[in-house]
Amino acid sequence: MVVEARDHGMPSLSSTATAIIGITDSNTHTPVFIAPKYDAQVIELETNKEILRIPVQDQDTPNTPASRAVFTILKGNEEGNYKIETDPVTNQGVLTVIKANDYKKTTIVELEIGVENEEPLFVCIDTKPVNPIPETLKKNSTVKVAVKVIDVNDPPVFQNKIQKVFRIEEEEPGDVLYTPTVTDEDSANIRCEIAEDPAKWMSIDPKTCKITLAKKMDRESPHVHNSTYTVVMRAIDDGEPPATGTGTLVVHLRDINDNAPHLILNTSVMCGNKADRVRVTAEDADAFPFSGPFTFTLGKEDQELKRLWNLDPSSGV
C-alpha cells in the first residue's frame, strides 16, 4: 500500500511511503474429506499395522494451526481396536489397527471419523463472530470407514496352557498322565504330537491328545530339574496353511530310595607324622530323607581291622 502525505502550501508539496501489511491467516475454513466413504480391510488377529490413509482439503494456509488436521474416531471403536493419527508431512489421517479383531465376533466394522483443525474455527456473518458454529458449516467434517475383517485359520487352543501332575518316580509304564481339552473354532480335525520330551518317557494319542507314560521316570535324570519334568504338546489343525497350538505338561516327581550311597573318594592318604585320622565322605543321588545323614562302618567282620582302626559311624572320621 502506497501512502501519500500532502501539505496546503503554494505550491503544495507531498511525499509517499509504502506500507506493507502482513495478514495472518486464521482458521476460517473447515477441513473437508475428499470422498464420502472409505473402505479398508484388516487380517484377523493382525495388530500395529496401517490400514488406511484419509486425505482432507483445507483452504487455509498450509502448515499452520489453521490447516493442520486433527482426526478423531467418533463411533465404532468401542473396543479400542483402532487409532488414527495425523501424518505431519501429508496432513492425512493414518488409520492403524492396534488390537486384534476376532472374525467370529465381527466381519465388518463401521467407523465414523471426524476431523477439525488445531486452531478453533472462526466464522463471521455480517461482520460479527458466530459462536457456536452452525452445523451446516461442518457437514463435511465426518466420514464413514468400513473395515472388513479377513478371516484366518486360528490355531488350536489348549484349555490349560500349563498343566501340573504329580507322580512317583519309577512307576510302571502305561499310566495315563493327562488328557488335555483342545478346541479349534475353525476346524474339527486336530492332530496331536509331542513337541518336547527330552528323556523320551511319553507317548501321545494323535486323536485324543492323551499322554501316557511310555517308560519309567527317574527323578535323578539330568532332564529333571528341581524334581520337575517338562513335556510340550503340539496340536495341529487341517487348515490351509495348518495352524499349531501348544500346551505344557509339568510332571512333579516324588522321590523314592532307589540309589545307594557311595563314597566320594575310594582312597585317602594319611601321613602318620602329620595326622592320625582322615574323614570319609559319601553322597547319595536321592533327596531327603533318602540321602544323608549316613552311617559308616568298616564293612567287614574283621577283628584285626577293628583293633587297628576306629571309624566314627556318624561323622566318618
From TrEMBL:
GO molecular function, one term: beta-catenin binding
Key words, A-Z: Calcium, Cell adhesion, Cell membrane, Glycoprotein, Membrane, Metal-binding, Repeat, Signal
Pfam families noted in UniProt: Cadherin
Compartments, as annotated in UniProt: Cell membrane
GO terms of biological process kind: adherens junction organization; calcium-dependent cell-cell adhesion via plasma membrane cell adhesion molecules; cell migration; cell morphogenesis; cell-cell adhesion mediated by cadherin; cell-cell junction assembly; homophilic cell adhesion via plasma membrane adhesion molecules
PROSITE patterns xref list: CADHERIN_1, CADHERIN_2
Transmembrane segments: none
All copies of domain Cadherin, residue ranges: 1-33, 34-158, 169-263
Cross-referenced InterPro entries: Cadherin, Cadherin-like_dom, Cadherin-like_sf, Cadherin_CS
SUPFAM superfamilies named in the record: Cadherin-like
One GO CC term, this protein: adherens junction
UniProt-recorded name of the protein: Cadherin domain-containing protein
